[in-house]
Amino acid sequence: AEPAPGAVHVPHWLDADRQHALLTACREWARPPAGLRTVRTPGGGTMTARQVCLGWHWYPYAYARTVVDGDNAPVKPFPAWLDELARNAVADALGPDAVPGDPYDIALINFYDGDARMGMHRDGDERSEAPVVSLSLGDTCVFRFGNTETRTRPYTDVELRSGDLFVFGGPSRLAFHGVPRVLPGTAPAWLGLTGRLNITLRVSGLAA
Ligand code: MD3
Ligand code: FE
Questions:
Q1: Which terminus of the chain is more exposed, N or C, with fewer CB under 10 A?
Q2: How many Å apart are CA 54 and CA 76, to the nearest integer?
Q3: 123 C-alpha vs ligand 2 centroid, how far in Å?
Q4: How far apart are CA 155 and CA 172, in angstroms?
Q5: Largest alpha-carbon pair distance within the chain?
């Protein structure tokens, strides 16, 4: 399904084995040092989803190589297999011509409990127009996909389920989006995850 130009939702892209493997990896990455943390915005807000980064550390609103707003540890490396996964995702969703020349080198992994949300925002801290790849695990969420002008209507609400892929390329790369709610207790029982996890894969366009 293509809810907006360049935005493609592929339900059930990850089979059960790949969901398990990705969840196991995310749990390892969540451990300190440079593990899961609460993000505080300059305006004094707190993100309710907790986050861990690979490759480059995101903090509002820039990238660094160390956890400058946490334990100051070096950010964990971005593994080559995640670049492969991202390239396969873009090819499957948008076709081979949409796969970027530069490697994927950032993963932002958000952990949501039942009360967590993400407000409407745009992702503009990367220096690349490469499509963003999003993978969901665990509880279903309501994902709100908006427009490029305002954080309000018009928007489209889409349910993202465990194993779903969403790719944001073209004009949708700069659209406002958010997660107004998570639907607790909807994760597949076999996964063994309470809550929701989202992995976004990005090309930084930043110098190594
Ligand atoms: C559209 N994450 O990490 S995934 C984010 O579910 C983020 O954790 C949400 O928004 C989450 O920035 C939504 C879908 C998503 C991710 C990145 C995008 C949509 C996007 C970047 C550009 C456009
Ligand atoms: Fe985002």
A1: C
A2: 5
A3: 5
A4: 12
A5: 42
Q: Which residue type is seen at 88?
A: N
ipTM of the complex: 0.97
Q: In which residue are the tokens 């076999």 written?
A: 190
Would you list which residues are annotated within the binding site?
A: 121, 123, 177
Q: Whose CA is nearest to atom 22 of ligand 1?
A: 173
Digit-coded pLDDT (tens) for 115-146: 999 999 999 999 999 999 999 999 999 999 99
- Residues 6 or more apart in contact with residue 5 via CB below 8 angstroms: 170, 171, 172
Structure-block tokens of residue 207: 């110098």
Would you say the CB of residue 168 lies under 6 angstroms from ligand 1? yes
9 CB under 6 A from ligand 1? Answer: no
φ/ψ (deg, to 5) at 4: -155, 160
Domain annotation for the chain: domains and CATH numbers: 7-202 (2.60.120.590)
